[in-house]
């Protein structure tokens, strides 16, 4: 076998691999000898079939298998011998000429193919002991725990019918019929609908007009649907709602006690407080770690500057760019609205993609040198988390991870990266700093690793995602119309 390097430009490599026809024929003959005693051909006793006849019957098939095996396995062997690692799956190219391919299968022509790839750049790991980070820590007050418990307990709040006028915080039970230009619209009707005034569940102006109503009242109110309302046929339209008030009920007081804990499925108020405090600590802890990780990445970025594999950067950029355009579409904005152009945004996020790839390679090398491993149990837990997020689709997800090349790696990569961050935290200087929750949650674009150039579209979301920050940004809850969800969805269609 001959391996000839035909391209060595930057990180790009291209090799020409040639295996002589006589070597391919020798391998084929070995395979024929192996199957000689197993094949059954009419007119011949077992093990007595002439090799020439076997070659005539099975030669091409065996040769095709050999070619596939060589093309599949040889590139990896060759790169190992060269001491190189490919950044992505190497591209293999063979002759597309049918006559030439037929000659190869008949062992009448050499097997030739090219292997094109980009090497992972080699770099020396640098001392990280000089990296210093500040870990912001929030002391959780008892009042905050109690406030969170009361918000959770709203689902367990009871109401008692009352006489007199409805006030904010009261629950009204109503029948309603919505009309636009005097015509009832789909999804605009409901009976015995329960609405807590001041909850802002319905469109702006609806709940306010029900303050002071009494049981038995009939009233027509006028509201305007928001311009961005999901149902296009209602967006921005003025509508009337004919309302019949069937009941007004006052909210019972909420007290943090064992009775409330029991309603929420726990044995005591102390246990309820313990769990809620743990949830708040986890939420703040995620933000703290995210900010610490960004500090580490920023300082690693200053330590390492080397050429990055173009294909990896392309793939990372496409992920970021896809998110950018999704954010713009959801916001109904253009690049001009964000005071930039598509060209400027592309250049900015291309730099971000290069940074992300470079840091990924650095973290990978640090982890490999430190012996960081992701256990089967950790992979299993990660897979279970995926399954938990998509109830009812467990089989499809399992099939995806079982049958899709690289799917398992997508589970392993974030686990590995977080374990490398844990390793770095044991090697660098970490100073704890007590801060308020407002300071912890403050939006700091530079701390989030965002490009420092002109404002770019949807910068906050895309940069946070691109930097692989832990936790997801909270989505603002959307206001609902007084229509049932299903009906509103149908209207939107």
Spell out the key features of this protein:
alpha+beta, isomerase, single chain, Trigger factor, 5-stranded antiparallel sheet, 14 helices, 4-stranded antiparallel sheet, 45% helix, 18% strand, Trigger_fac_ribosome-bd_bac, Trigger_fac_C_sf, disordered C terminus, 493 residues
Describe the structure.
It is built from 14 helices and eleven strands. Helix content is 45%, strand content 18%. Strands 6, 7, 8, 9 and 10 form a five-stranded antiparallel beta sheet that branches. A four-stranded antiparallel beta sheet has the order 1-2-4-3. Strands 5-11 form a two-stranded parallel sheet. α1 packs across α2, α7 crosses α8 and α7 packs antiparallel against α13. A hairpin with a 2-residue loop joins β7 and β8. The radius of gyration is 33 Å and the shape is elongated. By secondary structure, it is α+β, with helices and mostly antiparallel strands. Its EC number is 5.2.1.8. Involved in protein export. Acts as a chaperone by maintaining the newly synthesized protein in an open conformation. Functions as a peptidyl-prolyl cis-trans isomerase.
Structure at a glance:
The chain has 14 helices and 11 strands.
Summarize model confidence as the mean pLDDT.
Answer: 85
Contiguous low-pLDDT stretches (5 residues minimum) are 445-493
Number of helices: 14
Basic shape: elongated
Classify the secondary structure makeup into a structural class: alpha+beta
Roughly how much helix do the residues carry, as a percent range? 40-55%
SSE pattern: EEHHEHEEHEEEEEHHHHHHHEHHH
Number of strands: 11
Radius of gyration: 33 Å
**Into which percentage range does the β-strand content fall?**
15-25%
Summarize the biggest pleated sheet. Answer: 5 strands, antiparallel
Distance between the termini: 62 Å
